[in-house]
Amino acid sequence: MKPRAFISASLVAVTLLALSSLTTASLSVAGESTAFLTTAGAFAPTFSGGRDGFAARLEQSGACSDDGLEENDTCSTAPPLTAGTYPNLQICSGDDDYYAVDLEAGETIRATITFLNFGGDLDMYLVGPGCRTRLRSSTSNLNFERIEYTTVAAATYTLQVFGFGQAENSYDLDLEVLPPGAGCVDDNLEENDTCGRATLVTPDIYPNLQICRGDDDWFGVNV
Asked: What is the pTM of this model?
């Protein structure tokens, strides 16, 4: 549950302020103030109300603190990761996290980030070698994002984690690498994961096609 501050004056009005990300805040009411640590969440900086017209203000100090895998703000600075769990990672505003994963042909990467979406919506992409092509995306409003992809060729693939709308939040990353044949395998009409890469088809029957998690199939028809 998110930490919250309750503000009251003369027992006639109460406001609820959700607190902001991994920093220190100062709460002031009627000339009295107190400081406290906060965790991820949006906050309302001011509130006025009550029959006595009291005012409250929440101010932040300090900055969002990077995690221990920084600096990994670009594809070229992505640290190499192997299968495992990486806890207590942090997205700061405008500061994406990149992670490089070396995969052999036919291996499947399954990456999951978990967080409290209320504190800041995080999303995730998987991009191909050289960060030139986005292969998978996970952009829900849930408390996790998950990507699964089976490689065609041996290469270094890159995960990109970022905050939607400059959101900040902490998260855990769970990374699995499955051997060939253990994951969802694309069909032979790939790569057709976007409208711009739709496979052109003619009237016929196309058997044994496959939808994998987060992998739409697009088909183009000349009419």
From this structure: 0.60
Residue at 173: amino acid letter: L
The residues, any chain, with a CB within 8 Å of residue 67's CB and separated by 6 or more, are 88, 89, 90, 97
Q: Specify whether the CB–CB gap between 126 and 140 falls below 8 A.
A: no
Say yes or no: 41 and 133 in one domain. no
* 81 pLDDT above the threshold of 60: yes
Domain that holds residue 121: 75-178
- 69 burial (CB, 10 Å; 0-12 / 13-18 / 19+) is middle
Residue 210, in any domain of the structure: no
192 DSSP β-pair partners: none
Q: What beta strand segments (E) does 38-164 contain?
A: 46-49, 54-61, 84-91, 97-103, 108-114, 122-127, 134-138, 144-150, 155-163
